[in-house]
Automatic annotation (TrEMBL):
Organism field: Salix brachista
InterPro entries: AB_hydrolase_fold, KANL3/Tex30_Abhydrolase
Protein's name according to its UniProt entry: KANL3/Tex30 alpha/beta hydrolase-like domain-containing protein
Domain KANL3/Tex30 alpha/beta hydrolase-like: 51-201
Listed transmembrane segments: none
Amino acid sequence: MSNYTVESTIVQTSDGAKLRTRLFKPVEEGEITDNLVVVLVHPFSILGGCQAFLQGIAAGLAGKGYKTVTFDMRGAGKSTGRPSLTGFAEIKDVIAVCKWVCENLSSDRILLVGSSAGAPIAGSAVDGIKEVIGYVSIGYPFGMFASILFGRHHKGILKSPKPKLFVMGTRDGFTSVKQLQKKLSSAAGRVETHLIEGTSHFQMEGAEFDNQMVNLILTFISSL
């Protein structure tokens, strides 16, 4: 028997996009650890990214007592609207979902987690949502070629004083370990990194790494 349930809803953004959204939560209300809600932001929509990529992490966190929300950004899955090439329109999506969390789940504490291109998008939203108390990046694309699309997002998370964790494989094809360290050397606030030896960017998006991501997120939450 599953130790979590899934509810579906639609969240509307400030510019009218309708986002297919799922809430993963423990079966019993008494099993909810606290009122912190984890919001997961999926990889690049234009390359096929959608909330299904994050289902395993969401289920794992819900099983550990945390309400967790996934959603399809505009133009992904069955969400309306069109995806943008640089991810700036999608910032509105993250803000809308976090607003829905605060209004419907009685939460004033949100952890934002972004995977791949979802990391810069989530990072740009962090300081625009006062209820966000921390940020986790899984494979942030800081490298030179990825920066052509996402470079303007960098300053959003690097200047934020909120606690942040950057998880990356040492064989990430978009960002080298040296590039990651150089970028984070100028970051404000508390910054943590976790490198997964011998792992590539797209490997980390696979289901075999879901449990490891859940445990890293739980450890980070315990420090907030």
